[in-house]
Amino acid sequence: MYVSTLSLLLLTSLTGGWASPLEKRYFDFDNNGVADRCYQICELAIRCLLDDGTWTTIPSSQQLHSATSTGPLSFIDAAEQTQATSDISALLVQRTTGKSSSSTKKASTTSSHSSLPTGTLPSPSQFKADKGDKWTMQYVGDLKFTDTLQKEGLRGDNCRTSKIGDKVIWNCGDMMCKNDIDTCGFSYGPAFYGTDDVMVVNTTDIDYVQSNDFSKPWSGDKAPQAPWRSWGMYSSNVAPINSTHGVVYATQFWRNAPDGSTKARGNTVSSVTLGKNKPIATRQGPLLTGPDAVSLGLLAIMRADDYIYIYSGGGPSRVMVGRVPASDDVFDESNYEFLKADTNDTWIPGIPNADSMEVGATTADPSGQLGCDVWGSVVYNNYLQKYVMLCGLYLQFVNMHTADTPWGPWSAVYQIAGGGNITGSYGAMMHPEYSPGGSGKSWYFSIGPNYEFHMYKVTFDY
């Protein structure tokens, strides 16, 4: 079905307060009386399944979850509120080709540990047929927290892991206890230390989750203005700079307007240090970028050799790959470069806009696109001796790609899971810190339906 003009009918509405970041919504694009099924994660683009079986993406101007203005003290409320309404205009995302000058640099790949077992994946089609024989996926249980927050039912959006020195760091999205912010408060992105068990996060002696807010506004940031009433942050995972310091990115926005809209502010970059009881993210100055830039590291970031690699949604292949030297260079926008689209190792200086088609990862998938939406993980896997990208797509699938270098080119899609409990879930995050023996032969990933976090274990036998 070709849609030349999209007419949008919103059939659901918010009642206020804090709602799930995952919303099922229905729109009638072609006025044929058939509601097209759509999903939206937080304030990001809306994915819709049309009645001809194809998917389309529309930008969103309406927020689908927020915290109430009477929430915890960590919220900054504007002095005035104005009632506003917003119309959502639906546009098909078009794929175009961009051109730009480039500079080239090379980074070596990570070497494997020769004493560990290794294996080679077959083709994606054979891999799918091998499930249950040459590889397995097992549901392990739901992620647990210690002490009061476990008893009160802490839950939320998504939780990533990383490591600085010998400390495992879990940093998450919006979190609260059960569905009541009065129980343990609300945080737009807390961070905690891990334990020796992949199934348990250390939240001992924490009564209110906002006490562990991670990426915070800087003192010089302009406070939310009416009609927006509070901050929002979408954080990357953490990547180590050395054994005591790391880096984390966040997309800052204003949220919680009466009409549910948000206003992008730009990307932040923070230095991460190891506090006594929790990891600490410290801004080093103003926003790194303006509001039009791509959301840095929303898919993932990773340290490889002398670089921090940054994976973000967008571009002709759905994924942009950038990098910056793993040093204080991370605090200067001029030090970043992004992989030029349809090239294997040509880099364009600077941080692109979110709608840029000049930059993007390459893939062997026949579609020319990686099977990724928004959140995921990129790690080096010792068993495969390759970099692995894990991500979700359409809230229906968990997909994997592999590559010999941190920037690709990436393999065709290997489907890890689809349907069942995966439907409606998002934020597929790998936890390589807990791979038995560090081999990568078995590894864990979690995925969140905005309630508990489901944990799975994947084991290869190739």
UniProtKB/TrEMBL annotation:
UniProt-annotated stretches for the region Disordered: 99-129
Name used for this protein in its record: DUF4185 domain-containing protein
UniProt biased composition (Low complexity): 99-125
InterPro entries from the UniProt entry: DUF4185
Source species: Vermiconidia calcicola
Pfam families (UniProt xref): DUF4185
Taxonomic path: Eukaryota, Fungi, Dikarya, Ascomycota, Pezizomycotina
Superkingdom as given in the UniProt entry: Eukaryota
Leader sequence residues: 1-19
Keywords: Signal
Domain DUF4185 intervals: 298-447
